[in-house]
TrEMBL record, chain A:
<dbReference type="GO" id="GO:0052856">
    <property type="term" value="F:NAD(P)HX epimerase activity"/>
</dbReference>
<dbReference type="Pfam" id="PF03853">
    <property type="entry name" value="YjeF_N"/>
</dbReference>
<dbReference type="InterPro" id="IPR004443">
    <property type="entry name" value="YjeF_N_dom"/>
</dbReference>
<dbReference type="InterPro" id="IPR032976">
    <property type="entry name" value="YJEFN_prot_NAXE-like"/>
</dbReference>
<dbReference type="InterPro" id="IPR036652">
    <property type="entry name" value="YjeF_N_dom_sf"/>
</dbReference>
<feature type="domain" description="YjeF N-terminal">
    <location>
        <begin position="1"/>
        <end position="185"/>
    </location>
</feature>
<protein>
    <recommendedName>
        <fullName>ApoA-I-binding protein 2</fullName>
    </recommendedName>
</protein>
<dbReference type="GO" id="GO:0005739">
    <property type="term" value="C:mitochondrion"/>
</dbReference>
Automatic annotation (TrEMBL), chain B:
<keyword id="KW-0413">Isomerase</keyword>
<dbReference type="GO" id="GO:0046872">
    <property type="term" value="F:metal ion binding"/>
</dbReference>
<protein>
    <recommendedName>
        <fullName>NAD(P)H-hydrate epimerase</fullName>
        <ecNumber>5.1.99.6</ecNumber>
    </recommendedName>
</protein>
<dbReference type="InterPro" id="IPR004443">
    <property type="entry name" value="YjeF_N_dom"/>
</dbReference>
<keyword id="KW-0547">Nucleotide-binding</keyword>
<dbReference type="GO" id="GO:0000166">
    <property type="term" value="F:nucleotide binding"/>
</dbReference>
<keyword id="KW-0521">NADP</keyword>
<dbReference type="InterPro" id="IPR032976">
    <property type="entry name" value="YJEFN_prot_NAXE-like"/>
</dbReference>
<keyword id="KW-0496">Mitochondrion</keyword>
């Protein structure tokens, strides 16, 4: 949750209203997007959520309720006309697909969402992996996020990331888990939960 | 509304202080209407506490050779907040030790204990017999014994624990309510903590707090709920999860 403000501090946003579009996929990555949206709201951003395929998981349904009760609007459709998105929002949070998604990438509605995201011109912040990158070996059809927030530790496909800022949000990992998987232990500044790589 | 003042030095009269029933009503609404889980809010609350402690007592400020902290956890949710706080303190570079004599056998608490133990956080088998031992070994004590639901008499072993803590000279940081205090009236001859971290909003007892540091934590109350209960919370700085009130 702390990342968007670090990458896009409120005073720096180009639009008058601090609007952010949060696009949430059907599984865990999407649920993380919902939690992110809620925290953005408490940080005084104006998030809007697009969550076309809602998970039946009770925890994720509660995340949805929390967002609704905080008056975060849910779009009923994503405009295919990308200029509408470019004009309305300062940035897009990509919480469509995570590292586990392979089958989902080609299915609707994710395929259509990704097709639109490939053409937008405002910055994209991807959660954990740029959606669609996990399944592909690397191709011209990929979305190009400006910011990547790796969760726990960077994934394999993050090596291909060429955007402006790469953050890791993994302060919660216990030392023995890090050791077991041979993960680096970056120094987190102060009490921050993210660190820029 | 309620966001006009800078965070530091807000006059006490401006921010609302709650009665026990009001605090319980807000909590209930977060769970039943907003569908927050206890886990979610406890995690955010515990993180706030650790963050506030790190701001007021950074590891470099300890005179003990290591930044050793004793966290005393009570039998309810305040104890749970303490366990979460402990885990984050460890992440922030402290060396916490827990004393947790009584806890519900619910998965939430079992899970929190496991998370601490797997991070090599020791759990004391006995409470230090004398205040002097605590002063020697630790640079700070976190009081996570009783919270805003506390009512009535203090049951053992907490009576003896509180008597010992009242004689400790290292700083004590209390989570939400100084333990043993009446949630509204305080307790003049009770624990006198150096720090209080009020969660969600301060309770009436906070008006009797005379320690050096009063922080607000628990940055999860939706605006609509803040307005409904007229919390009058000052703005949290940036994306911080704590706000220093004094």
């Amino acid at each position: 949750p702390a990342v968007s403000p670090q990458a896009f501090p409120l005073p720096s946003l180009p639009r008058r209203q601090p609007t952010v579009l949060v696009v949430c996929g059907p599984a865990q990555n999407g649920a993380i997007g919902l939690v992110c949206a809620r925290h953005l709201r408490s940080f005084d951003y104006e998030p809007t959520i697009f969550y076309p395929k809602r998970s039946p998981d009770p925890l994720y349904r509660d995340f949805t309720t929390q967002c609704e009760k905080m008056d975060i609007p849910f779009l009923s459709y994503l405009p295919t006309e990308v200029q509408l998105i470019n004009d309305a929002y300062n940035a897009v949070v990509d919480a469509v697909l995570g590292a586990e998604a392979e089958a989902a990438e080609g299915t609707e509605p994710c395929a259509a969402i990704l097709a639109t995201l490939r053409h937008i011109r405002i910055p994209i912040v991807s959660l954990d992996v740029p959606s669609g990158w996990a399944a592909e070996a690397g191709g011209s059809g990929d979305i190009s996020p400006d910011v990547l927030v790796s969760l726990a530790a960077p994934k394999e496909c993050a090596r291909r990331f060429l955007g402006r800022q790469h953050f890791v949000a993994g302060r919660f990992l216990p030392y023995d888990v890090r050791r077991k998987f041979g993960l680096d232990a970056p120094e987190y500044p102060g009490t921050e939960c993210v660190v820029a790589l | 509304p309620g966001r006009a003042w800078p965070g530091f030095g807000v006059p006490r009269g401006a921010i609302s202080h709650f009665r026990q029933e009001e605090a319980q009503a807000i909590d209930q609404e977060l769970f039943t209407e907003y569908k927050f889980s206890v886990d979610q809010l406890m995690e955010l609350a515990g993180l706030s506490c650790a963050t506030a402690i790190a701001k007021a007592y950074p590891p470099s400020s300890f005179t003990t050779s290591q930044p050793a902290v004793l966290v005393v956890c009570g039998p309810g949710n305040n104890g749970g907040d303490g366990l979460v706080c402990t885990r984050h303190l460890k992440m922030f570079g402290y060396q916490p030790t827990v004393y947790y004599p009584k806890h519900p056998s619910k998965p939430l608490f079992e899970g929190l204990i496991t998370q601490c133990k797997k991070m090599d956080i020791p759990f004391l088998p006995e409470f230090p017999a004398e205040a002097a031992f605590i002063d020697e070994l630790y640079g700070l004590v976190v009081d996570a014994i009783f919270g805003f639901s506390f009512k009535g008499a203090v049951r053992e072993p907490f009576g003896s624990i509180l008597s010992t803590l009242e004689r400790v000279t290292v700083p004590i940081a209390s989570i939400d309510i100084p333990s043993g205090w009446d949630v509204e009236k305080g307790k003049a001859d009770g624990l006198q903590p150096d720090m209080l971290i009020s969660l969600t909003a301060p309770k009436k007892a906070a008006m009797h707090f005379t320690g050096r540091y009063h922080f607000l934590g628990g940055r999860f109350v939706p605006l609509a709920l803040q307005e409904k209960y007229a919390l009058n919370l000052p703005a949290y700085p940036g994306t911080d999860c704590v706000l220093q009130l004094t």
